[in-house]
Amino acid sequence: MRLDRMQGWVKKAEMAAKTGADGLAIIGLVLLLVQGFAITGDALSRWLLRAPIHGLEDLNGLLIAVTLTCFMPLLMARRGNITIRLLGQSLGPSFALWFDAFGQIMLTGFVFVVTWHYGLYALDLGVQYSPIVEIPRQPSAFVATGLLGITLIVQIISCLASIGQAIHPEKAQP
């Protein structure tokens, strides 16, 4: 009975993670569109007026990590990472679920290491500024680190769900 309660909690957490990841992906999409329009405006300004938008390169350089990390929780929530299922499927459905769980465990470790090292990178930035308009670089690195932390939490939930499916294959979703 205790395992059933934990699986119920993991299912609820998984649904909440997917909802939150969808919201972050929308924020990422808006940032990506803003950057795309700004780059288009910069190109048109260079072509028509012979004058670039001052500081846009600095701003884009700082926002790209934030923009990309907005999409990572969605990738983990939907388990959209690359998987090789040939061996697991050839050995049977139970083995396939355990191979998937093993892959999720390894991915969780990888996301942890990336988050940890990006956090160290953000701390090492100190008081560095962008080269053209001197925007501080550390705040955007901290935001990206926070988004990687959210990605890690979502991945842990996906990993637990995958392990639960391997333990109880009869409750596994197709």
TrEMBL record:
One MF term in the entry's GO annotations: transmembrane transporter activity
One GO cellular component term of this record is: plasma membrane
Top-rank taxon, per record: Bacteria
The topology of this chain with respect to the membrane is: Multi-pass membrane protein
Tell me which InterPro entries the record gives.
Answer: DctQ
Alphabetically sorted, this entry's keywords are: Cell inner membrane, Cell membrane, Membrane, Transmembrane, Transmembrane helix, Transport
Instruction: Tell me the compartments it is located in.
Output: Cell inner membrane; Cell membrane
Q: Give the family, as the similarity comment puts it.
A: Belongs to the TRAP transporter small permease family.
Q: What does this protein do?
A: Part of the tripartite ATP-independent periplasmic (TRAP) transport system.
Q: What is this protein called?
A: TRAP transporter small permease protein
